[in-house]
Amino acid sequence: MSALLRDFEGKGALVTAAGAGIGRSIALDLARRGAAVLVTDRSPADARQVADEIDAAGGRAQALQLDVKDAQGIRDAVDATVALAGGLDLLFNVAGINIPKNVEMMEEDEWASVLDVNLTSIYRSAKHAIPQMRRRGGGAIVNVASIAGVLAENRCGAYSASKGGVVLLTRNMAMDFARDNIRVNAVCPGSTRTPRTEGYWRNSPTGKSEMAELCPMKRSAEPEEIARPAIFLASADASYITGAILVVDGGMTAGFRIPTFDRM
Ligand SMILES: NC(=O)c1ccc[n+]([C@@H]2O[C@H](COP(=O)([O-])OP(=O)(O)OC[C@H]3O[C@@H](n4cnc5c(N)ncnc54)[C@H](O)[C@@H]3O)[C@@H](O)[C@H]2O)c1
User: Fold this and answer.
1) Is residue 123 among the annotated active site residues?
2) CA distances from 203 to 99, 189, 200 (A)
3) All structural domains of the chain
4) Mean pLDDT of the region 61-75
5) Which of 15, 167, 192, 198 to mutate to test the pocket of ligand 1 (most atoms within 8 A of CB)?
6) Within 13 Å of residue 208, how many CA atoms lie on the same side as its CB?
7) How many CA atoms lie within 13 A of 195 on its CB side?
8) Residue 39: how many other CB atoms lie within 10 Å
9) Which of 8, 15, 134, 169 is deepest in the core (most CB within 10 A)?
10) Ligand 1 atom index nearest CA of 43
């Protein structure tokens, strides 16, 4: 492997929800680029499988079961990253869930669960990771928000509210920790092919992604197409980027199409 590609050599990375989808791609790519990765997921079997893939490819990883609702679990994950890598430099907050209901349909416990996993967990992990990053002289946090945090999605009240919260929390943390040399950025994916979304589209009338149909590029992203921009934000190439909200959506939120103009 080229030395140029091993730009995260010596870095310790903590990735949440790394057992599948976007988080898995981030973990694999970070390890390929030299980071020691704590692969965490609510599913211990999925975390183990990704850590094994990294080991098999010659990288450094450790699996840990972590539900991001668990504050003590997050503290343990931060400590485990430090034990694995000698310090924590990179935090990728990937965990997110959606319960597609409008506010009238949604129960209190469902609302609380979406806000907890998608937004409050970022407060929790940042709170415990930041002192460790300060010890290393700085670090980078990348939050995975959504285009639903920029524009509202129908029947996704809690999801949109939580992801909008992630966008502003990202900007807030960027301001508060810039002097500690800790950069904080977010990616906002559009439709991305992951186990969860594959489940949605299986039940659509065409069996295909109805979201991809609305997108100018007429396709969903592969998880790698979200992971690479997320990792860019954590890399030295983004050394002057903090508080950025990088939309990665195939043009989905670029504008709206007026059929009349297409016919002129
Ligand atoms: N896939 C998309 O189209 C899409 C679009 C926009 C934003 N996002 C965001 O990207 C992130 C990752 O989404 P995805 O589709 O890759 O994931 P996914 O739903 O396919 O699941 C990835 C992993 O998350 C884990 N997970 C779920 N709840 C967890 C919890 N409480 N604690 C720890 N792990 C948990 C699961 O076990 C699974 O292994 C989420 O924040 C999601 O909101 C995804």
Assistant:
1) no
2) 15, 22, 6
3) 7-248 (3.40.50.720)
4) 98
5) 192
6) 7
7) 11
8) 32
9) 15
10) 37
